[in-house]
Amino acid sequence: MRIDVVSIFPEYLAALDLSLIGKARRDGLLDVNVHDLRDHAHDRHRTVDDTPYGGGAGMVMKAGPWSEVLTGIRESAEPRSGGKRPVLIVPSPAGAVFNQRMAYDLAEEDHLVFACGRYEGIDERVVEWSREHFDVRPVSLGDYVLNGGEVAVLAMVEAVGRLIPGVVGNPESLVEESHSDGLLEYPVYTKPSEWNERPIPEVLLSGNHAKIARWRRDEQFRRTAERRPDLIFALEPESLDKGDRAV
Ligand code: 6GU
């Protein structure tokens, strides 16, 4: 998968050299390119923002540098088989909220481009113009405000990157994690079996795999109902098994 990130703080994205995502890059599974938007501002002060039409607080990112950098990225991308357009993700608190479903969908794409806005956002005409060549998706991490899209991009690239085959060493570990089945994950324990006068749940020592599976599933429901009741309401009836019941 190819990933391009455009930012006025490219140093923020240095973390993409680390850990699992860094290894995936070195292994050739991810081709990540970070672009400095200011390289596409051609005045003496490398200006990327200006005051908003209609007045109001803050500054708005100018269209010119954005159109230049996005055109360069598009032209440098190989023509895609089937004419599939790259996905342009615009991180914004005004976007659709990112979730595991979206991460799975994005992991199927060949080319993701992230446009990190700062200030009050990017001139809306850039977003409209981009639809000609990109599949444009404004995406938010959640209902709170960050100063810019960079931290959101780190989160999204990690969530998507780890779903690409070969990035996570043991693909089994993707199956039983939070949100993979619409529920939060069950609690886990390791040795010693008693610590600080606290034993682990007895069932986990029973050797009865069906019973353990049932206990874990019940714990998933208990946790989800307590911490994220919204997820219980969103469950597809078909995703429930015969043993599921109100916990
Ligand atoms: Cl994706 N960007 C910004 N600037 N703020 C956010 C966000 C994104 N998600 C939540 N708050």
Automatic annotation (TrEMBL):
<dbReference type="GO" id="GO:0005829">
    <property type="term" value="C:cytosol"/>
</dbReference>
<feature type="binding site">
    <location>
        <position position="117"/>
    </location>
    <ligand>
        <name>S-adenosyl-L-methionine</name>
    </ligand>
</feature>
<keyword id="KW-0963">Cytoplasm</keyword>
<feature type="domain" description="tRNA methyltransferase TRMD/TRM10-type">
    <location>
        <begin position="1"/>
        <end position="232"/>
    </location>
</feature>
<dbReference type="Pfam" id="PF01746">
    <property type="entry name" value="tRNA_m1G_MT"/>
</dbReference>
<dbReference type="GO" id="GO:0052906">
    <property type="term" value="F:tRNA (guanine(37)-N1)-methyltransferase activity"/>
</dbReference>
<protein>
    <recommendedName>
        <fullName>tRNA (guanine-N(1)-)-methyltransferase</fullName>
        <ecNumber>2.1.1.228</ecNumber>
    </recommendedName>
</protein>
<keyword id="KW-0808">Transferase</keyword>
<comment type="similarity">
    <text>Belongs to the RNA methyltransferase TrmD family.</text>
</comment>
<dbReference type="GO" id="GO:0002939">
    <property type="term" value="P:tRNA N1-guanine methylation"/>
</dbReference>
<dbReference type="InterPro" id="IPR029028">
    <property type="entry name" value="Alpha/beta_knot_MTases"/>
</dbReference>
<comment type="function">
    <text>Specifically methylates guanosine-37 in various tRNAs.</text>
</comment>
<keyword id="KW-0819">tRNA processing</keyword>
<dbReference type="InterPro" id="IPR023148">
    <property type="entry name" value="tRNA_m1G_MeTrfase_C_sf"/>
</dbReference>
<dbReference type="InterPro" id="IPR016009">
    <property type="entry name" value="tRNA_MeTrfase_TRMD/TRM10"/>
</dbReference>
<keyword id="KW-0949">S-adenosyl-L-methionine</keyword>
<keyword id="KW-0489">Methyltransferase</keyword>
<feature type="binding site">
    <location>
        <begin position="141"/>
        <end position="146"/>
    </location>
    <ligand>
        <name>S-adenosyl-L-methionine</name>
    </ligand>
</feature>
<dbReference type="InterPro" id="IPR029026">
    <property type="entry name" value="tRNA_m1G_MTases_N"/>
</dbReference>
<comment type="subunit">
    <text>Homodimer.</text>
</comment>
<dbReference type="InterPro" id="IPR002649">
    <property type="entry name" value="tRNA_m1G_MeTrfase_TrmD"/>
</dbReference>
